[in-house]
Amino acid sequence: MPQQLVTDLGLDLRLASRSVASYTPWIRDGRAGGLLVERPERGETGDSFRALTGGDEEYDAWQRFYADVAGLAEVVAPTLLDPLPTERTLRDAVDPQVWRDLVTRPIGETIEERFSDDTVRGVVATDALIGTFASLRDPSLVQNRCFLYHLIGNGTGEWRVPVGGMGAVTDALARAAVSAGAEIVTGAGVSGIRASDDGAEVNWHDGGQDHVVTARHVLSNVAPWVLRILLGETEEPDSKPQGSQLKINLLLDRLPRLKSGVEPELAFAGTLHLAEDYSQLEAAYADAAAGRVPSVMPGEIYCHTLTDHSILGEAPPDMHTLTYFGVHTPAALFERDPEGAKQLAVERALAALDEHLVDPIASCLATDAAGRPCLEAKIPQDIERDLAMPGGHIFHGDLEWPWAPNRARLDTPAQQWGVQTDVASVLVCGSGARRGGAVSGLGGHNAAQAVLASR
Ligand SMILES: Cc1cc2nc3c(=O)[nH]c(=O)nc-3n(C[C@H](O)[C@H](O)[C@H](O)COP(=O)(O)OP(=O)(O)OC[C@H]3O[C@@H](n4cnc5c(N)ncnc54)[C@H](O)[C@@H]3O)c2cc1C
Predict the structure, then answer these.
(1) Could you read off the pLDDT of 142-198 as tens digits, one per residue?
(2) Which of 150, 70, 65, 71 is nearest to 116 (CA)?
(3) Could you tell me if the CB of 218 is within 6 A of ligand 1?
(4) Which atom of ligand 1 is nearest to the CA of 431?
(5) How many domains does the chain have?
(6) 300-334 confidence digits (pLDDT tens)
(7) Is the CB of 229 under 6 A from ligand 1?
(8) What is the distance in angstroms between the CA of the first residue and the CA of the last residue of the chain?
(9) Same domain, 299 and 373
(10) Domain assignment of residue 232, given as a range
(11) Are 124 and 211 found together in one domain?
(12) Half-sphere exposure of 349 (CA within 13 A, CB side)
Protein backbone atom coordinates (compact mmCIF):
# COMPACT_ATOMS: atom_id res chain seq x y z
CA MET A 1 0.00 0.00 0.00
CA PRO A 2 1.62 3.26 -1.13
CA GLN A 3 2.50 5.53 1.78
CA GLN A 4 0.94 8.42 -0.17
CA LEU A 5 -2.44 6.69 0.02
CA VAL A 6 -2.12 6.14 3.77
CA THR A 7 -1.25 9.83 4.20
CA ASP A 8 -3.96 11.15 1.84
CA LEU A 9 -6.68 9.23 3.68
CA GLY A 10 -5.20 10.01 7.09
CA LEU A 11 -5.26 6.30 7.95
CA ASP A 12 -4.43 5.53 11.55
CA LEU A 13 -2.39 2.50 10.57
CA ARG A 14 1.06 1.23 11.38
CA LEU A 15 2.75 -1.14 8.94
CA ALA A 16 5.70 -2.77 10.69
CA SER A 17 8.88 -3.84 8.96
CA ARG A 18 10.19 -7.35 9.40
CA SER A 19 13.82 -7.59 10.55
CA VAL A 20 14.49 -10.54 8.23
CA ALA A 21 13.44 -10.86 4.59
CA SER A 22 13.79 -14.62 4.39
CA TYR A 23 15.39 -17.74 5.78
CA THR A 24 15.70 -20.90 3.72
CA PRO A 25 16.76 -24.00 5.65
CA TRP A 26 18.78 -26.49 3.60
CA ILE A 27 20.29 -29.92 4.09
CA ARG A 28 23.19 -30.90 1.83
CA ASP A 29 25.44 -33.93 2.21
CA GLY A 30 23.91 -34.50 5.63
CA ARG A 31 24.82 -30.96 6.72
CA ALA A 32 22.03 -28.61 7.86
CA GLY A 33 22.29 -24.88 7.21
CA GLY A 34 20.20 -21.92 6.23
CA LEU A 35 20.28 -19.09 3.72
CA LEU A 36 19.53 -15.90 5.62
CA VAL A 37 18.55 -12.68 3.86
CA GLU A 38 18.48 -9.81 6.32
CA ARG A 39 16.50 -6.63 5.84
CA PRO A 40 18.39 -4.46 5.24
CA GLU A 41 21.13 -6.84 4.12
CA ARG A 42 24.15 -6.81 6.40
CA GLY A 43 27.23 -9.01 6.75
CA GLU A 44 25.44 -12.20 7.72
CA THR A 45 23.58 -12.36 4.41
CA GLY A 46 26.81 -12.58 2.43
CA ASP A 47 28.21 -15.11 4.93
CA SER A 48 25.19 -17.34 4.55
CA PHE A 49 25.43 -17.22 0.73
CA ARG A 50 29.10 -18.25 1.04
CA ALA A 51 28.22 -21.12 3.42
CA LEU A 52 25.68 -22.44 0.93
CA THR A 53 27.44 -21.85 -2.39
CA GLY A 54 31.13 -21.94 -1.39
CA GLY A 55 32.00 -18.54 -2.88
CA ASP A 56 30.92 -14.98 -3.59
CA GLU A 57 29.60 -15.35 -7.14
CA GLU A 58 26.02 -16.19 -6.24
CA TYR A 59 25.68 -13.30 -3.78
CA ASP A 60 27.20 -10.92 -6.33
CA ALA A 61 24.63 -12.15 -8.86
CA TRP A 62 21.88 -11.67 -6.24
CA GLN A 63 22.93 -8.08 -5.55
CA ARG A 64 23.12 -7.26 -9.28
CA PHE A 65 19.73 -8.85 -9.92
CA TYR A 66 17.92 -7.01 -7.11
CA ALA A 67 19.59 -3.73 -8.10
CA ASP A 68 18.01 -4.28 -11.54
CA VAL A 69 14.63 -5.08 -9.95
CA ALA A 70 14.91 -1.91 -7.85
CA GLY A 71 15.64 0.07 -11.02
CA LEU A 72 12.40 -1.18 -12.58
CA ALA A 73 10.43 -0.67 -9.34
CA GLU A 74 11.64 2.93 -9.05
CA VAL A 75 10.20 3.63 -12.50
CA VAL A 76 6.90 1.75 -12.07
CA ALA A 77 5.97 2.51 -8.43
CA PRO A 78 5.51 6.30 -8.82
CA THR A 79 3.01 5.68 -11.68
CA LEU A 80 0.63 3.47 -9.68
CA LEU A 81 -1.45 6.39 -8.36
CA ASP A 82 -1.53 8.16 -11.76
CA PRO A 83 -3.43 7.43 -14.97
CA LEU A 84 -1.91 4.39 -16.68
CA PRO A 85 1.34 5.01 -18.49
CA THR A 86 1.77 3.12 -21.75
CA GLU A 87 4.15 0.22 -21.97
CA ARG A 88 6.34 2.22 -24.35
CA THR A 89 6.76 5.11 -21.92
CA LEU A 90 7.96 2.83 -19.15
CA ARG A 91 10.10 0.66 -21.39
CA ASP A 92 11.93 3.75 -22.63
CA ALA A 93 12.73 4.71 -19.03
CA VAL A 94 14.28 1.34 -18.13
CA ASP A 95 17.59 -0.27 -19.09
CA PRO A 96 16.75 -2.49 -22.14
CA GLN A 97 18.41 -5.57 -20.63
CA VAL A 98 16.46 -5.18 -17.38
CA TRP A 99 13.23 -4.79 -19.34
CA ARG A 100 14.00 -7.94 -21.33
CA ASP A 101 15.01 -9.95 -18.25
CA LEU A 102 11.97 -9.04 -16.16
CA VAL A 103 9.22 -8.13 -18.61
CA THR A 104 9.53 -9.71 -22.04
CA ARG A 105 10.97 -13.16 -21.49
CA PRO A 106 9.92 -15.81 -18.97
CA ILE A 107 11.40 -14.98 -15.57
CA GLY A 108 12.59 -18.61 -15.35
CA GLU A 109 14.98 -18.07 -18.28
CA THR A 110 16.42 -15.02 -16.55
CA ILE A 111 16.79 -16.82 -13.23
CA GLU A 112 18.47 -19.79 -14.87
CA GLU A 113 20.87 -17.52 -16.71
CA ARG A 114 21.77 -15.28 -13.80
CA PHE A 115 21.96 -17.80 -10.93
CA SER A 116 23.44 -21.27 -10.69
CA ASP A 117 22.48 -22.53 -7.22
CA ASP A 118 19.14 -24.38 -7.09
CA THR A 119 18.21 -22.99 -3.66
CA VAL A 120 19.11 -19.41 -4.52
CA ARG A 121 17.22 -19.69 -7.81
CA GLY A 122 14.19 -20.93 -5.89
CA VAL A 123 14.24 -18.09 -3.35
CA VAL A 124 14.20 -15.62 -6.23
CA ALA A 125 11.49 -17.54 -8.10
CA THR A 126 8.88 -17.80 -5.36
CA ASP A 127 7.68 -14.21 -5.75
CA ALA A 128 6.56 -15.21 -9.25
CA LEU A 129 4.37 -18.02 -7.94
CA ILE A 130 2.51 -16.73 -4.88
CA GLY A 131 -1.11 -17.08 -5.97
CA THR A 132 -0.13 -17.90 -9.56
CA PHE A 133 -0.19 -21.38 -11.07
CA ALA A 134 2.41 -21.44 -13.82
CA SER A 135 5.76 -22.86 -14.79
CA LEU A 136 8.58 -20.35 -14.37
CA ARG A 137 9.12 -20.73 -18.11
CA ASP A 138 5.45 -20.19 -19.01
CA PRO A 139 5.21 -18.24 -22.30
CA SER A 140 2.11 -16.36 -21.02
CA LEU A 141 4.43 -14.45 -18.62
CA VAL A 142 1.74 -14.47 -15.93
CA GLN A 143 4.53 -15.46 -13.53
CA ASN A 144 6.53 -12.34 -14.51
CA ARG A 145 3.54 -10.14 -13.69
CA CYS A 146 3.15 -11.84 -10.30
CA PHE A 147 6.87 -11.35 -9.67
CA LEU A 148 6.67 -7.65 -10.49
CA TYR A 149 3.72 -6.98 -8.17
CA HIS A 150 5.51 -8.64 -5.28
CA LEU A 151 8.52 -6.35 -5.71
CA ILE A 152 7.29 -2.86 -6.58
CA GLY A 153 5.35 -1.76 -3.48
CA ASN A 154 6.50 1.76 -2.48
CA GLY A 155 9.44 1.30 -4.87
CA THR A 156 11.13 -1.18 -2.53
CA GLY A 157 8.83 -4.18 -2.57
CA GLU A 158 9.12 -4.51 1.19
CA TRP A 159 6.45 -6.76 2.70
CA ARG A 160 5.11 -5.18 5.87
CA VAL A 161 2.86 -6.40 8.65
CA PRO A 162 -0.15 -4.31 9.77
CA VAL A 163 0.07 -3.82 13.53
CA GLY A 164 -3.15 -5.18 15.02
CA GLY A 165 -3.74 -7.59 12.12
CA MET A 166 -5.57 -7.23 8.82
CA GLY A 167 -8.64 -5.96 10.66
CA ALA A 168 -6.63 -2.88 11.59
CA VAL A 169 -6.37 -2.07 7.87
CA THR A 170 -10.07 -2.40 7.16
CA ASP A 171 -10.97 -0.59 10.39
CA ALA A 172 -8.72 2.34 9.45
CA LEU A 173 -10.26 2.48 5.96
CA ALA A 174 -13.76 2.28 7.42
CA ARG A 175 -13.05 5.13 9.84
CA ALA A 176 -11.72 7.29 6.99
CA ALA A 177 -14.79 6.50 4.85
CA VAL A 178 -17.30 7.22 7.62
CA SER A 179 -15.63 10.47 8.59
CA ALA A 180 -15.88 11.51 4.93
CA GLY A 181 -19.63 10.83 5.00
CA ALA A 182 -19.90 7.26 3.73
CA GLU A 183 -22.55 4.88 5.00
CA ILE A 184 -21.28 1.33 5.44
CA VAL A 185 -23.71 -1.59 5.21
CA THR A 186 -22.43 -5.06 6.06
CA GLY A 187 -24.06 -8.46 5.64
CA ALA A 188 -25.60 -7.23 2.41
CA GLY A 189 -25.70 -9.29 -0.78
CA VAL A 190 -25.95 -7.74 -4.23
CA SER A 191 -28.07 -9.92 -6.49
CA GLY A 192 -27.99 -7.89 -9.71
CA ILE A 193 -27.01 -4.60 -11.33
CA ARG A 194 -29.01 -3.05 -14.17
CA ALA A 195 -26.70 -0.53 -15.74
CA SER A 196 -26.56 1.84 -18.66
CA ASP A 197 -23.79 4.27 -19.49
CA ASP A 198 -25.61 7.02 -17.53
CA GLY A 199 -26.37 5.22 -14.28
CA ALA A 200 -27.23 1.97 -12.56
CA GLU A 201 -29.77 0.29 -10.35
CA VAL A 202 -28.38 -2.12 -7.76
CA ASN A 203 -30.56 -4.83 -6.25
CA TRP A 204 -29.44 -6.04 -2.86
CA HIS A 205 -30.79 -7.84 0.17
CA ASP A 206 -29.96 -7.66 3.85
CA GLY A 207 -30.88 -11.25 4.61
CA GLY A 208 -34.51 -10.35 5.28
CA GLN A 209 -35.55 -7.75 2.75
CA ASP A 210 -34.79 -6.80 -0.84
CA HIS A 211 -33.66 -3.26 -1.60
CA VAL A 212 -32.92 -1.21 -4.69
CA VAL A 213 -30.56 1.72 -4.92
CA THR A 214 -29.90 3.90 -7.94
CA ALA A 215 -26.61 5.60 -8.59
CA ARG A 216 -24.68 7.56 -11.18
CA HIS A 217 -21.67 5.29 -10.62
CA VAL A 218 -21.19 1.84 -9.11
CA LEU A 219 -17.69 0.99 -7.91
CA SER A 220 -17.36 -2.74 -7.43
CA ASN A 221 -14.68 -4.76 -5.69
CA VAL A 222 -16.15 -8.20 -6.39
CA ALA A 223 -14.06 -10.16 -8.89
CA PRO A 224 -14.65 -9.12 -12.52
CA TRP A 225 -15.91 -12.65 -13.25
CA VAL A 226 -18.61 -12.22 -10.59
CA LEU A 227 -19.39 -8.66 -11.66
CA ARG A 228 -20.17 -9.82 -15.20
CA ILE A 229 -22.76 -12.22 -13.77
CA LEU A 230 -24.28 -9.48 -11.61
CA LEU A 231 -24.50 -7.34 -14.74
CA GLY A 232 -26.63 -10.03 -16.37
CA GLU A 233 -24.17 -12.10 -18.39
CA THR A 234 -24.41 -15.86 -18.27
CA GLU A 235 -21.98 -17.62 -15.99
CA GLU A 236 -18.96 -18.82 -17.98
CA PRO A 237 -17.30 -21.80 -16.24
CA ASP A 238 -14.37 -21.79 -18.71
CA SER A 239 -13.23 -18.31 -17.79
CA LYS A 240 -13.70 -18.75 -14.04
CA PRO A 241 -10.49 -17.97 -12.13
CA GLN A 242 -8.82 -20.93 -10.45
CA GLY A 243 -6.88 -20.45 -7.23
CA SER A 244 -3.83 -22.58 -6.60
CA GLN A 245 -2.74 -22.16 -2.99
CA LEU A 246 -2.96 -24.24 0.14
CA LYS A 247 -3.23 -22.13 3.29
CA ILE A 248 -2.54 -23.57 6.74
CA ASN A 249 -2.91 -21.48 9.89
CA LEU A 250 -1.32 -22.75 13.07
CA LEU A 251 -1.22 -21.57 16.66
CA LEU A 252 1.86 -22.69 18.61
CA ASP A 253 2.69 -22.92 22.30
CA ARG A 254 6.33 -22.34 21.31
CA LEU A 255 8.39 -22.01 18.16
CA PRO A 256 10.16 -25.22 17.06
CA ARG A 257 13.95 -25.53 17.06
CA LEU A 258 15.66 -25.99 13.70
CA LYS A 259 18.28 -28.58 12.71
CA SER A 260 20.50 -25.80 11.39
CA GLY A 261 20.84 -24.48 14.95
CA VAL A 262 19.62 -20.99 14.01
CA GLU A 263 17.52 -19.19 16.63
CA PRO A 264 13.84 -19.86 15.76
CA GLU A 265 13.10 -16.16 16.39
CA LEU A 266 15.46 -15.38 13.51
CA ALA A 267 14.44 -18.19 11.15
CA PHE A 268 10.72 -17.41 11.43
CA ALA A 269 11.00 -13.61 11.50
CA GLY A 270 10.72 -13.25 7.72
CA THR A 271 9.57 -15.64 5.01
CA LEU A 272 10.66 -19.21 5.75
CA HIS A 273 10.99 -21.05 2.44
CA LEU A 274 10.29 -24.80 2.39
CA ALA A 275 10.97 -27.16 -0.53
CA GLU A 276 11.18 -24.11 -2.77
CA ASP A 277 14.38 -24.98 -4.63
CA TYR A 278 13.94 -24.03 -8.29
CA SER A 279 13.89 -27.69 -9.39
CA GLN A 280 11.34 -28.51 -6.67
CA LEU A 281 9.07 -25.67 -7.81
CA GLU A 282 9.16 -26.89 -11.40
CA ALA A 283 8.66 -30.54 -10.36
CA ALA A 284 5.66 -29.57 -8.21
CA TYR A 285 4.18 -27.61 -11.10
CA ALA A 286 4.59 -30.63 -13.38
CA ASP A 287 2.93 -32.90 -10.79
CA ALA A 288 -0.01 -30.55 -10.30
CA ALA A 289 -0.44 -29.88 -14.02
CA ALA A 290 -0.72 -33.66 -14.44
CA GLY A 291 -3.47 -33.75 -11.79
CA ARG A 292 -1.40 -34.95 -8.83
CA VAL A 293 -0.87 -33.37 -5.41
CA PRO A 294 2.87 -32.50 -5.59
CA SER A 295 4.96 -35.30 -4.05
CA VAL A 296 7.11 -32.61 -2.39
CA MET A 297 5.03 -29.56 -1.49
CA PRO A 298 6.70 -26.16 -1.94
CA GLY A 299 5.49 -23.41 0.34
CA GLU A 300 6.48 -20.74 2.79
CA ILE A 301 5.72 -19.70 6.31
CA TYR A 302 5.19 -16.30 7.91
CA CYS A 303 5.15 -15.75 11.67
CA HIS A 304 3.37 -12.45 12.11
CA THR A 305 3.54 -12.53 15.91
CA LEU A 306 7.32 -12.08 15.80
CA THR A 307 6.70 -8.66 14.24
CA ASP A 308 3.50 -7.83 16.12
CA HIS A 309 2.56 -9.95 19.12
CA SER A 310 -0.50 -7.79 19.83
CA ILE A 311 -2.66 -9.96 17.54
CA LEU A 312 -2.58 -12.63 20.24
CA GLY A 313 -3.82 -10.26 22.94
CA GLU A 314 -2.79 -11.37 26.42
CA ALA A 315 -1.29 -14.69 25.27
CA PRO A 316 2.10 -15.69 26.75
CA PRO A 317 5.06 -14.33 24.75
CA ASP A 318 6.19 -17.83 23.66
CA MET A 319 2.89 -18.41 21.88
CA HIS A 320 2.99 -17.69 18.14
CA THR A 321 0.94 -17.86 14.96
CA LEU A 322 2.38 -19.43 11.83
CA THR A 323 0.70 -19.14 8.51
CA TYR A 324 1.76 -21.43 5.68
CA PHE A 325 1.20 -20.50 2.03
CA GLY A 326 1.66 -23.47 -0.31
CA VAL A 327 2.00 -23.04 -4.06
CA HIS A 328 1.05 -25.31 -6.95
CA THR A 329 -2.11 -26.82 -5.50
CA PRO A 330 -4.76 -25.72 -8.03
CA ALA A 331 -8.44 -26.15 -7.18
CA ALA A 332 -8.74 -28.94 -9.79
CA LEU A 333 -6.63 -31.25 -7.59
CA PHE A 334 -9.32 -31.20 -4.92
CA GLU A 335 -12.42 -31.66 -7.02
CA ARG A 336 -12.76 -35.45 -6.97
CA ASP A 337 -11.89 -36.09 -3.31
CA PRO A 338 -11.69 -32.72 -1.50
CA GLU A 339 -11.07 -34.04 2.01
CA GLY A 340 -8.67 -36.84 1.01
CA ALA A 341 -6.60 -34.64 -1.30
CA LYS A 342 -6.55 -31.83 1.26
CA GLN A 343 -5.32 -34.17 4.00
CA LEU A 344 -2.58 -35.45 1.71
CA ALA A 345 -1.50 -31.92 0.79
CA VAL A 346 -1.43 -30.84 4.45
CA GLU A 347 0.61 -33.92 5.43
CA ARG A 348 3.13 -33.20 2.71
CA ALA A 349 3.31 -29.51 3.56
CA LEU A 350 4.00 -30.28 7.23
CA ALA A 351 6.54 -32.96 6.23
CA ALA A 352 8.45 -30.31 4.25
CA LEU A 353 8.61 -28.25 7.45
CA ASP A 354 9.43 -31.15 9.76
CA GLU A 355 12.40 -32.09 7.56
CA HIS A 356 14.19 -29.04 9.00
CA LEU A 357 12.98 -29.20 12.59
CA VAL A 358 14.36 -30.76 15.75
CA ASP A 359 10.88 -30.55 17.31
CA PRO A 360 8.17 -31.86 14.97
CA ILE A 361 5.63 -29.12 14.39
CA ALA A 362 2.82 -31.26 15.85
CA SER A 363 4.61 -31.20 19.23
CA CYS A 364 4.49 -27.37 19.28
CA LEU A 365 0.81 -26.91 18.39
CA ALA A 366 -1.47 -25.29 20.95
CA THR A 367 -4.77 -27.03 21.64
CA ASP A 368 -8.23 -25.53 21.87
CA ALA A 369 -10.72 -25.85 24.77
CA ALA A 370 -11.79 -29.27 23.45
CA GLY A 371 -8.18 -30.48 23.26
CA ARG A 372 -7.98 -30.31 19.47
CA PRO A 373 -4.75 -29.07 17.83
CA CYS A 374 -5.04 -25.46 16.62
CA LEU A 375 -4.53 -26.00 12.92
CA GLU A 376 -6.83 -25.01 10.08
CA ALA A 377 -6.25 -25.65 6.40
CA LYS A 378 -7.90 -23.98 3.43
CA ILE A 379 -7.87 -25.24 -0.15
CA PRO A 380 -9.05 -22.92 -2.95
CA GLN A 381 -12.59 -24.28 -2.61
CA ASP A 382 -12.62 -23.24 1.07
CA ILE A 383 -11.41 -19.74 0.17
CA GLU A 384 -14.21 -19.47 -2.38
CA ARG A 385 -16.80 -20.62 0.14
CA ASP A 386 -15.51 -18.43 2.99
CA LEU A 387 -14.56 -15.26 1.11
CA ALA A 388 -16.51 -15.41 -2.17
CA MET A 389 -13.33 -15.12 -4.21
CA PRO A 390 -14.30 -17.07 -7.35
CA GLY A 391 -12.33 -20.29 -7.71
CA GLY A 392 -10.51 -19.31 -4.50
CA HIS A 393 -8.19 -17.13 -6.62
CA ILE A 394 -6.48 -14.73 -4.22
CA PHE A 395 -6.14 -11.99 -6.85
CA HIS A 396 -9.69 -12.47 -8.31
CA GLY A 397 -8.02 -13.61 -11.56
CA ASP A 398 -4.66 -13.45 -13.31
CA LEU A 399 -2.65 -10.30 -12.71
CA GLU A 400 -2.17 -7.77 -15.50
CA TRP A 401 0.84 -5.55 -16.19
CA PRO A 402 0.59 -2.26 -14.29
CA TRP A 403 0.67 -0.26 -17.54
CA ALA A 404 -1.49 0.00 -20.65
CA PRO A 405 -0.60 -1.87 -23.83
CA ASN A 406 0.66 0.59 -26.45
CA ARG A 407 -2.46 0.27 -28.55
CA ALA A 408 -5.00 0.24 -25.69
CA ARG A 409 -8.00 2.58 -25.96
CA LEU A 410 -7.54 5.26 -23.34
CA ASP A 411 -10.48 7.51 -24.23
CA THR A 412 -12.46 7.57 -20.99
CA PRO A 413 -11.24 8.32 -17.46
CA ALA A 414 -12.07 4.71 -16.50
CA GLN A 415 -9.88 3.37 -19.29
CA GLN A 416 -7.15 5.84 -18.41
CA TRP A 417 -7.15 4.64 -14.79
CA GLY A 418 -7.46 0.93 -15.66
CA VAL A 419 -10.82 0.45 -13.90
CA GLN A 420 -13.30 0.16 -16.78
CA THR A 421 -16.02 -2.39 -17.51
CA ASP A 422 -18.16 -2.58 -20.65
CA VAL A 423 -20.62 -0.11 -19.09
CA ALA A 424 -19.52 3.46 -18.37
CA SER A 425 -21.37 3.76 -15.05
CA VAL A 426 -19.77 0.65 -13.50
CA LEU A 427 -16.12 0.67 -12.46
CA VAL A 428 -13.85 -1.92 -10.90
CA CYS A 429 -12.33 -0.73 -7.61
CA GLY A 430 -10.74 -3.86 -6.12
CA SER A 431 -8.34 -6.66 -6.85
CA GLY A 432 -9.66 -7.02 -10.40
CA ALA A 433 -8.65 -3.50 -11.43
CA ARG A 434 -5.64 -3.42 -13.74
CA ARG A 435 -3.37 -2.47 -10.86
CA GLY A 436 -5.32 -4.33 -8.15
CA GLY A 437 -4.32 -7.75 -6.92
CA ALA A 438 -3.38 -7.08 -3.31
CA VAL A 439 -4.17 -5.14 -0.17
CA SER A 440 -2.76 -2.05 -1.86
CA GLY A 441 -5.71 0.34 -2.07
CA LEU A 442 -4.75 1.01 -5.69
CA GLY A 443 -8.03 -0.24 -7.17
CA GLY A 444 -10.10 2.00 -4.90
CA HIS A 445 -7.90 5.04 -5.35
CA ASN A 446 -7.85 4.70 -9.12
CA ALA A 447 -11.59 4.10 -9.47
CA ALA A 448 -12.27 7.17 -7.29
CA GLN A 449 -9.96 9.27 -9.46
CA ALA A 450 -11.77 8.05 -12.59
CA VAL A 451 -15.12 9.15 -11.12
CA LEU A 452 -13.71 12.55 -10.16
CA ALA A 453 -12.24 12.97 -13.65
CA SER A 454 -15.55 12.13 -15.32
CA ARG A 455 -17.66 14.72 -13.49
C1 LIG B 1 -4.92 -16.77 1.61
C2 LIG B 1 -4.68 -15.40 1.06
C3 LIG B 1 -3.49 -14.74 1.31
C4 LIG B 1 -3.26 -13.46 0.80
N5 LIG B 1 -2.09 -12.83 1.13
C6 LIG B 1 -1.93 -11.53 0.77
C7 LIG B 1 -0.81 -10.78 1.24
O8 LIG B 1 0.03 -11.29 1.98
N9 LIG B 1 -0.69 -9.49 0.83
C10 LIG B 1 -1.62 -8.90 0.02
O11 LIG B 1 -1.46 -7.71 -0.30
N12 LIG B 1 -2.68 -9.59 -0.43
C13 LIG B 1 -2.87 -10.88 -0.08
N14 LIG B 1 -3.97 -11.58 -0.50
C15 LIG B 1 -4.83 -10.95 -1.51
C16 LIG B 1 -5.81 -9.98 -0.90
O17 LIG B 1 -6.53 -10.60 0.13
C18 LIG B 1 -6.78 -9.47 -1.98
O19 LIG B 1 -6.04 -8.91 -3.04
C20 LIG B 1 -7.73 -8.43 -1.39
O21 LIG B 1 -8.52 -8.99 -0.36
C22 LIG B 1 -8.61 -7.89 -2.46
O23 LIG B 1 -9.50 -6.95 -1.89
P24 LIG B 1 -10.85 -6.60 -2.60
O25 LIG B 1 -11.53 -5.60 -1.74
O26 LIG B 1 -10.59 -6.26 -4.02
O27 LIG B 1 -11.67 -7.96 -2.66
P28 LIG B 1 -12.15 -8.93 -1.49
O29 LIG B 1 -11.29 -8.79 -0.29
O30 LIG B 1 -12.31 -10.27 -2.13
O31 LIG B 1 -13.56 -8.34 -1.11
C32 LIG B 1 -14.71 -8.53 -1.93
C33 LIG B 1 -15.90 -8.57 -1.02
O34 LIG B 1 -17.09 -8.66 -1.79
C35 LIG B 1 -17.97 -9.56 -1.16
N36 LIG B 1 -18.94 -10.05 -2.16
C37 LIG B 1 -18.76 -10.95 -3.15
N38 LIG B 1 -19.89 -11.11 -3.86
C39 LIG B 1 -20.82 -10.25 -3.33
C40 LIG B 1 -22.19 -9.94 -3.63
N41 LIG B 1 -22.84 -10.52 -4.63
N42 LIG B 1 -22.82 -9.03 -2.85
C43 LIG B 1 -22.18 -8.42 -1.82
N44 LIG B 1 -20.87 -8.66 -1.50
C45 LIG B 1 -20.21 -9.57 -2.24
C46 LIG B 1 -17.07 -10.63 -0.60
O47 LIG B 1 -17.71 -11.33 0.43
C48 LIG B 1 -15.90 -9.80 -0.10
O49 LIG B 1 -16.11 -9.35 1.21
C50 LIG B 1 -4.24 -12.84 0.00
C51 LIG B 1 -5.45 -13.50 -0.22
C52 LIG B 1 -5.67 -14.76 0.30
C53 LIG B 1 -6.99 -15.44 0.05
Answers:
(1) 999 999 999 998 888 898 999 999 999 999 999 999 999 999 999 999 999 999 999
(2) 65
(3) no
(4) 26
(5) 3
(6) 999 999 999 999 999 999 999 999 999 999 999 99
(7) no
(8) 27
(9) yes
(10) 185-239+394-453
(11) no
(12) 29
